[in-house]
Amino acid sequence: MNTSKPFGLVIHGGAGAILKENMPAEMEAACRSKLLESVEAGYAVLERAGSALDAVVAAVRVLEDSPLFNAGHGAVLNAEGQCELDAAIMDGRTLEAGAVAGLHHIKNPISLARDVMEKSAHVMLIGEGAEILAKALGHELVPNAYFQTERRRNELARAQSLEAKRHADKASRQLQEDLIRSDGAENPEPPSGKDKWGTVGCAALDRQGNLAAGTSTGGLTNKRYGRVGDSPIIGAGTYANNATCAVSCTGHGEYFMRAVAGHDISARMEYRGVSLAAAAQDALDGIARLGGSGGLVAIDRDGNCALPFNTPGMYRSCRRSDGYSLVEIFGAQAVRPP
Question: Mind listing the pLDDT tens digit for each residue in 234-273?
Fold first, then answer.
């Protein structure tokens, strides 16, 4: 009888209106290949009895270094035409966590988030303060242009063109109201079905029974300078607790923050005794009721996985010690491996 403890990991690379008919075959193949590379990098760490934290960092760095996903190289651009990066990591064994936000020059934000956790007295550092620590610790700094790609510049141009058109249409319909309320505040419209919420993340369980989660993102295309989403917020986009599960989320971050999504899943398991799959789906359903869309990946202390999403697709992969593996982009909206 096999008495070894289960181990494994789950990965996501963003969720949204990801439709097979809209994706060129070469792009699909490239995305599947990179998802496989990421999950294999993390699994190799676990297989040789490495820690869940090490596996998370290994898996996420592969996606940060790829121009295909919205994290690190290939991140989306903010309204100022710059890449602004966030990341977080959490240790389910100790409940220690590290997070960074508003980075402009750190090649691998997930690694700096881990150093904030392990080499500082803080949980979150932002902007220049985070980058000063990075320099002191010898992290690789790069010009902001390193993160930018032609694809993302084109996306920003389209987003700003659509925004200008919306503002013009609104002005023509409600000129008087706009004049009365012209206080400079933004009233963004709900996201359209064409949006893709790009973020990368990983949740892992190691041979020692420890859980960890990490998330890294460039945020939203055309976001305001200084905007921070759910990814670096502990308990929202990233959470891990050995007593329950590890979770990494992707989606419209404002909703995931309001729902405290990651901790909500853990709390449902701990206080109500429900399964990971049920807790994850219930939490995502709650976000949908608020008006939010996206998905998440999670793994519990027994190696059960959940990968629910309420969008047409989510880049996702999984590998477990029982032989189960998955690399998928499209398909069913709630994948619940046995």
Answer: 999 999 999 999 999 999 999 999 999 999 999 999 999 9
**Domains (range + CATH), the chain:** 8-146+191-335 (3.60.20.30)
Output the six-digit token pair for 194.
């064409």
Active site residue 199: yes
Alpha-carbon span 256 to 270, nearest angstrom? 20
> What is the C-alpha separation between 120 and 36, in angstroms, rounded?
33
Max distance between CA atoms of the chain, in angstroms, equals 76
Read off the DSSP letter of residue 77.
Answer: P
* Residue reference for tokens 């392990």: 118
**Active-site residue among 3, 94, 149, 199?**
199
Q: 267-313: per-residue pLDDT in tens?
A: 999 999 999 999 999 999 999 999 999 999 999 999 999 999 999 99
Point out which residues pair with 157 in neighbouring strands.
Answer: none
Integer Cα distance of 21 and 51 in angstroms: 39
Residues comprising the chain, all counted = 338
Q: Tell me the whole-structure pTM to 2 decimals.
A: 0.89
Which residues neighbour 114 within 8 Å (Cβ) at sequence distance 6 or greater?
Answer: 53, 57, 89, 98, 214
